[in-house]
Amino acid sequence: MPGELRPGWVCVRRRLPLLPLLLLAALWLAGAPPAGALVAGLRVRVRLPDGQIGEETLEADTDTDSISIEFKKSDGSLITFIADLRKDVKIIRSLILGEMERGQTQFQGLCFITRLHKNEIIPSDSMAKLRQKNPRAVRVAEEQRGLEHLYMDVAVNYSRASQLSIHVHNVCAEATDGIYARESDVKHWVNSGVDASIFEAIHVSEDVPRCRTSREWWKGCICRYSLCVEWYPCFLKYCRTKDAAGKTSTYKCGIRSCQKCSQFDFYVPQKQLCLWDEDT
Q1: Nearest in space to 268 (alpha carbons), one of 213, 185, 210, 199
Q2: Which of 19, 80, 132, 251 is 20 to 30 Å from 186 by CA-CA measure?
């Protein structure tokens, strides 16, 4: 039907979203590919919760068996989602525009690394073969997977994190002091052979307040960061056909789309690093 996604090869030129010049320079230095590089991917228009229309760039790299999704939040923050299917690792990086009039730098980087579970997203080779009949269609996810609440209680050593995923070095280059994981995921990775020394538990006393309620700008608190990936391909659809002899077989005939929202709680050494999480 018009506007649906079906398997088929597509190659588009990657064009990075508009950012302040400093962000573009940082991304270039972090190893982002040149704007003219040819990659397999899609640009998808999505309906946002406030009714506005946003755009996501979805790309697949079959060599590294990974999928990336990039979009901008309504506040201007740039979100990059990486699914490393080879390592069972999911990375969400946010570049948050700073409030310079309140003493912040021009942007602040955060990286949240969690375990990627089986069947959470389609395979990279299937993603690389997706195409759109109607690129101007505005998409709404078929399935809402609900809100995921994650307490990030482990710090990740940026300089040694490449053994966890080769993507950490580039994706988290602007967040070297703000890379977080969860103890339960760390146990899984260590049992899989990842060196435990790249992780450090973050010990926080019970009386540490939430940044939302704290009035002490230069003291530590528990920060919350929320985001939603409004549209991504989470399942493959299979159809059945019969040959002339009446034998039934199945083939890939499309995808099912999902929305996923996440809330990350994590410790920051001062409220100044969590200005978005305030009472209104």
Answers
A1: 210
A2: 80
Q: Which SS3 state, helix, strand or coil, does residue 210 take?
A: strand
Residue type, 44: V
CA atoms within 13 A on the CB side of 208: 19
Q: Which residue has the tokens 């608190």?
A: 221
Q: What span, in angstroms and rounded, lies between the C-alpha atoms of 214 and 220?
A: 9
Q: Specify whether the CB–CB gap between 133 and 2 falls below 8 A.
A: yes
Here the tokens at position 214 are 């704290």
Tokens at 98, concatenated: 């700073």
Q: Residue 41 above 90 pLDDT? A: no
CA atoms of 153 and 222, how far apart (whole Å): 11
- Token pair listed for 5: 């996604």
Question: Residues 261, 161, 115, 200: what is their CA dihedral angle, to the nearest 10 degrees?
Answer: -90
Cα R_g (the chain), whole angstroms: 20
Measured between alpha carbons, how far is 265 from 142 in angstroms, rounded to an integer?
28
Tokens of 16: 């990075």
Residue among 185, 181, 148 at smallest CA distance from 259 = 148
3-class SS of residue 199: strand
pLDDT digits (tens, 9 = 90+) for 90-140: 999 999 987 766 666 678 999 999 999 988 999 999 999 888 889 899 999
